[in-house]
Structure to design on (104 residues):
């Protein structure tokens, strides 16, 4: 169950990272409130998952999910470059996340 909670926390991290773009420096009320709520929920879920998971593993997986999700959504939503090198690096992060899951 901790891994599922951690996964959801990572997805929410992606959500708030993308949400930052829409807040326009926290000058837009609705995106700002949603982003802050998503941040808080993500951190709370991370802390719940860390009750049973090792902190190093949990934090690395959480940030990895957030980084990969944000990079992919940056490509899809904002037209950021999807070069082979960039996609390969995203693949390396995914491999690292999977590796931490399997050894923990």
């Amino acid at each position: 169950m901790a891994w599922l909670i951690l996964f959801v926390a990572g997805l929410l991290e992606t959500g708030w990272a993308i949400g930052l773009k829409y807040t326009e420096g926290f000058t837009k009320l609705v995106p700002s409130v949603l982003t802050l709520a998503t941040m808080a929920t993500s951190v709370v879920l991370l802390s719940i998952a860390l009750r049973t998971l090792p902190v190093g593993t949990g934090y690395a997986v959480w940030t990895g999910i957030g980084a990969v999700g944000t990079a992919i959504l940056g490509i899809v939503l904002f037209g950021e470059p999807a070069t082979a090198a960039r996609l390969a690096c995203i693949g390396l992060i995914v491999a690292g996340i999977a590796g931490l899951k399997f050894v923990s």
User: Anything to note?
Assistant: The chain has one domain: 2-103. Residues 4 and 49 are 8 Å apart (CA to CA). Residues 2-103 form one domain.
